[in-house]
Design brief:
ASCH domain-containing protein; 5-stranded mixed sheet; alpha+beta; 5 helices; Sulfate adenylyltransferase
């Protein structure tokens, strides 16, 4: 795409194997949703993405790999995440319990706790989650 305006970056996880796995899942169509902590948005003083917003999906090497468009944003309690959202994350989860266990590992990681500025951070049923759906508008540099 030539002469396009700069897009906000879409950063899934932290650079490394997990980000690479997630970017690959987006590019091959398995991943059409993602989850974040509402607290992350608050900590970074960032607005929730509006439906229709476009962003550039960034790989671990900092390259733009695709243009994504937000199609839905829901804020809900961790306890209210549904099976369809878990399946649409494209990470192979067969149940909400599997999805939650995987995400708790990530959210309780040293990297995430450092990013949040809370070395003791933990989630529970009442933790607010941002469940975002998106579609690939264009693949870049492939």
């Amino acid at each position: 795409m030539e002469n396009r305006e700069a897009l906000k970056p879409c950063l899934l996880a932290f650079p490394g194997p997990l980000r690479d796995q997630l970017v690959a899942a987006v590019l091959d169509g398995r991943k059409v949703s993602t989850s974040g902590l509402l607290l992350e948005y608050e900590t970074e003083n960032e607005e929730l993405p509006p439906v229709g917003e476009r962003s550039a999906l960034i790989d671990s090497d900092g390259r733009e790999t695709a243009v994504l468009e937000v199609t839905e944003v829901r804020v809900l309690r961790l306890a209210d995440v549904d099976l369809q959202h878990a399946l649409d994350e494209g990470e192979g989860y067969a149940s909400v319990a599997e999805w939650r266990a995987g995400h708790e590992r990530f959210w309780h990681s040293d990297e995430m706790r450092e990013a949040l500025g809370d070395p003791e951070f933990t989630v529970d049923d009442e933790t607010m989650i941002v469940a975002e759906r998106f579609r690939v508008v264009e693949r870049l540099g492939l």
